[in-house]
Amino acid sequence: xxxxxxxxxxxxxxxxxxxxxxxxxxTDGEFVVLLGPSGCGKSTLLRIIAGLEPQTRGSxxxxxxxxxxxxxxxxxxxxxxxxxxxxxxxxxRDNLAFGLTMRKEPKAVIAERIAETAALLAIHDLLDRKPRxxxxxxxxxxxxxxxxxxxxTLFLFDEPLSNLDARLRAAMRVELQKLHHCLAxxxxxxxxxxxxxxxxxxxIVVMNQGCIQQIGxxxxxxxxxxxxxxxxxxGHPPMNLFEGSYRLRGRELEFRAGTLxxxxxxxxxxxxxxxxxxxTLGLRPENVALDPPGTNHLAFDGTIDxxxxxxxxxxxxLVVHGQRVVARTSPNSTRRVGDAVTAYWPTxxxxxxxxxxRVPVSP
Length: 363
Description:
By secondary structure, the protein is an alpha+beta fold. It contains eight helices and 20 strands.
């Protein structure tokens, strides 16, 4: 087993910068998720870790070894790709055995490893089939089995579930959690799907435009986003974000976006720049209440524009002072499109960002 350390990784293609000063550390046995939109550099970073792509600057360390000069086959890593990458002319058994055979492992060791992996992934009844005879989920299990059977020090997953349907993705997320619990191998997992990131990752690395935006546990990323990008990228529906201006008087911060005006308290004046300037206000849909929630809330009159019935809850789109506000509410509500309502915003659930940084708000 081994951890992973990246120090100041940069990657450029000509004048185009793909990765900028990326540094992170994964402890031994940790499950780290690289999360971000398409084109943010997360797959390029994974390929650099694997040795499939050279970095322009920086270093990669696996365990206590700097592997910058090592080819992929000497880094003791196993990678699972988005497109399975199975040999179509080989059986599942031979696909699993291929890497071990190339390493000239004894036949008895290969047979034992295949039996262990097949039992772990519940694919023992598929060993004599070929990939064309398997479903998408079965192929992905085999692809993961080919990585597991080698018992590497580092697993790399490049969006392995993106080709599966929603139901199968959910089932495979559960299986991946079980596998990691059993194997306890350091894992780096790339995805643009925030649900995968939140459910699988012990640590989430949010990336955008080649830069790390925030590193933290899922609850930290969700409840204390570092900047508006992270706030808007994590959560479904996304956080309500309002662009406006602020004015700070002592601890009182006044925010204005069009005709929407509110005041909140900051813990200390030095938490944000004194004076005034541009600010972003955020509030998650589940924190928008259409019934009085109790003390320490702000009330705004609005009109229901659209209602999405998801069965277990309703997604309600409101117009409040000319701003679109999304609320997640109980399915038992009798409200209809066009109804005038009062939206209640708990002050302790508000997020304020000044100069792209989160500013604490007091209840």
